[in-house]
From TrEMBL:
Pfam families: APH. PANTHER family: HAD FAMILY PHOSPHATASE (PTHR47829:SF1), HYDROLASE, PUTATIVE (AFU_ORTHOLOGUE AFUA_1G12880)-RELATED (PTHR47829). Residues 27-250 form the Aminoglycoside phosphotransferase domain. This is Unannotated protein.
Length: 340
């Protein structure tokens, strides 16, 4: 028995609603936690598939909207962006206790550490890096009306709306006064660039949320569409720059393979994006700073929940967690120093 899967009911649903799959099925947890839970399944003939459901014991269904995520992946599947093929959506909570959807299984590696990238040739590392940008350019080139996402969200004033949202979040979750954060918010408000059109904004785009063919150096699947909306495309490019480490960089980055030999400089990615899209990237430091700010606010929220005992089942390094918030705020201020 696999936790989170009602095997008899899910088996019956799959047999009835997903063409090409035949039970009995096996299920294996791939990833779970506070984010949506992902299982790798296989049918009686060995055909693999993926099932996604909200985290066990979640409270707000809107925070883990399976129908929305299924809609996004289905729509993006009409573009050149590589995504798994959606196979079915179940909104009847009587089947599995929560909505879920099923999609095709894509073979690839989630490059969330230098260790996973160590098997790649230097050429494949460089090729995968530029393909990461090429895929992002394709995502930002998608006609949202044509693929059925025109009504997904407001398109204008993306950064302005995000700043209001995260400033409120900081006020509600902060555990201490931090004058540097106040200065940062003011600078972000004062230097806000003019939005260059409105595109699909993935919201969490990086190697760690993609499947990579490590031999060919190609992105074969973009995952984790929970934060996707419509907005400023440069926010995604700036977000990559939060995780990216340049060759020889001694700063320890989490959940990213870059920094080892073969991966290009972040500036090369920005140049590649500019060539592919024609967009002005001269203010990319702003978008990196904004992304650092956003992650700092999220980090403070997690830190606050630990302090208040909401996650008593886990014991992280609290001091490191707190310091990571401070570090991101200071780094964001440094990025904004040279903006005019």
């Amino acid at each position: 028995m696999v936790l989170g899967i009602d095997e008899p009911k899910v088996t019956a649903w799959l047999d009835q609603h997903v063409e090409g799959l035949t039970g009995p099925y096996t299920f294996e947890l791939i990833a779970g936690g506070r984010s949506n839970v992902t299982y790798r399944g296989a049918d009686s003939g060995g055909t693999k598939f993926v099932l996604r459901r909200p985290p066990l014991g979640h409270v707000l269904a809107t925070a883990h909207d399976m129908a929305r995520e299924h809609r996004l992946i289905t729509a993006v599947g009409k573009t050149p962006v590589p995504v798994p093929r959606t196979l079915g959506l179940c909104t009847d909570v009587e089947v599995n206790g929560a909505p879920f959807y099923v999609m095709s299984f894509v073979e690839g590696t989630v490059l969330d550490s230098a260790e996973k990238a160590s098997v790649m040739t230097l050429e494949a590392r460089r090729a995968a890096s530029f393909d990461l940008i090429d895929v992002l350019a394709e995502l930002h080139a998608a006609d949202v009306d044509e693929i059925g996402l025109g009504d997904l969200a407001r398109r204008d004033s993306y950064i302005e709306r995000q700043l209001k949202r995260w400033t409120t979040q900081w006020a509600n979750s902060k555990t201490r006064e931090m004058p540097e954060m106040d200065v940062l918010v003011k600078k972000l408000q004062d230097h806000m660039p003019v939005q260059q059109g409105a595109t699909i904004a993935h919201g969490d785009y990086r190697f760690g949320n993609c499947l990579t063919d490590t031999t060919a150096g190609k992105i074969v699947g973009v995952l984790d569409w929970e934060l996707c909306t419509l907005g400023d495309p440069l926010a995604d490019l700036g977000y990559i720059g939060i995780y990216w480490r340049d060759p020889g960089d001694t700063i320890v980055g989490g959940n990213d393979p870059t920094g080892i030999e073969g991966f290009p400089y972040y500036s090369e990615l920005v140049e590649r994006y500019a060539l592919r899209t024609g967009r002005d990237v001269s203010q990319i430091a702003y978008y990196r700073a904004f992304s650092a700010y956003r992650l700092a606010v999220i980090g403070e929220g997690v830190y606050s929940r630990y302090l208040n005992g909401a996650m008593a089942d886990e014991l992280p390094d609290m001091e490191s967690m707190k310091n990571s918030v401070d570090t991101r705020v200071i780094w964001a201020l440094e990025l904004l120093q040279n903006l005019k």
